[in-house]
Design a protein that fits this description.
Length: about 260
């Protein structure tokens, strides 16, 4: 009897683990229509689940956001007291030929963009932009920056370039609302989810509204995005947003 009970427990545990593994593949999530009911959107806004997406071996996976490792530099920086306030909040890191670009986002308390040497012994401040995410396109370095707070939502795409011995920034494009995530489509257009909209930005810096007001506008906070086979997958609170760039059709993916 005890042996049978042990076998049942082992099988149950294996099924649970396999089920969790299967659910990490976005292809095993269930497709639902985009919710429009205010009560449903409100319920999603209070969800405890913050889903994040990533691509590996040409497959799209989804995990709890807490499972994704935070970006880390391979060394400790000895920060001067005068700069200590800047070195806080959510960090973004981009490796460049002479070291690292490090961006900090602290919400309504500000942000900063720094260059750090490859050994961490030297650094300097480039700007006070609130860096949300870096992206490389055609060998050039860009970042989305901005803030959505209370009644304010604003931001831009900036280019980070090196005119002489030091890195500098210039505005590439002002965005209609604060950006949350960015990726490149197969034509190297910027695909951006802002606090309100889904945008495509062409190489000539022209903005196309793919979705003017997305369901995430109800406080679902997009945190990650990947594009595979011309399909956008965006991780956010409660579920994953799915948008077909070829057809313009979207849906809402849930693990049940």
């Amino acid at each position: 009897m005890k042996v049978n009970l042990l076998i049942i427990l082992i099988v149950f545990s294996l099924e649970s683990c396999l089920g969790q593994t299967d659910k990490k593949l976005i292809s095993n999530w269930n497709t639902h229509p985009i919710p429009t009911n205010p009560d449903s959107l409100r319920k999603y806004g209070f969800s405890f689940h913050e889903w994040a997406v990533y691509k590996k071996n040409d497959s799209v996976f989804v995990v709890d956001k807490k499972e994704l490792p935070s970006p880390q530099l391979p060394f400790k920086i000895k920060v001067k007291k005068a700069d200590s306030r800047d070195f806080g909040g959510r960090a973004s890191i981009l490796k460049v030929e002479d070291g690292y670009l490090v961006g900090f986002y602290r919400g309504e308390w500000g942000g900063a963009l720094y260059w750090v040497s490859s050994d961490g012994k030297n650094y300097y401040k480039i700007s006070s932009h609130e860096i949300v995410q870096f992206i490389n396109r055609g060998g050039k370095q860009y970042a989305i920056e901005g803030l959505a707070h209370l009644g304010t939502s604003e931001g831009s795409i900036i280019e980070i370039y090196k005119p002489n011995d030091k890195w500098a920034v210039r505005e590439h494009l002002k965005l209609p609302t604060a950006p949350a995530v960015i990726a490149l489509d197969h034509q190297d257009n910027f695909i951006i989810i802002t606090s309100k909209s889904l945008l495509k930005v062409g190489r000539n810096a022209q903005i196309f509204f793919l979705v003017d007001k997305g369901l995430w506008y109800a406080a679902l906070y997009p945190n990650s995005m990947v594009i595979r086979n011309n399909i956008i997958y965006a991780g956010m609170r409660a579920g994953v947003y799915h948008y077909d760039l070829s057809t313009g059709k979207d849906s809402w993916l849930l693990p049940y």
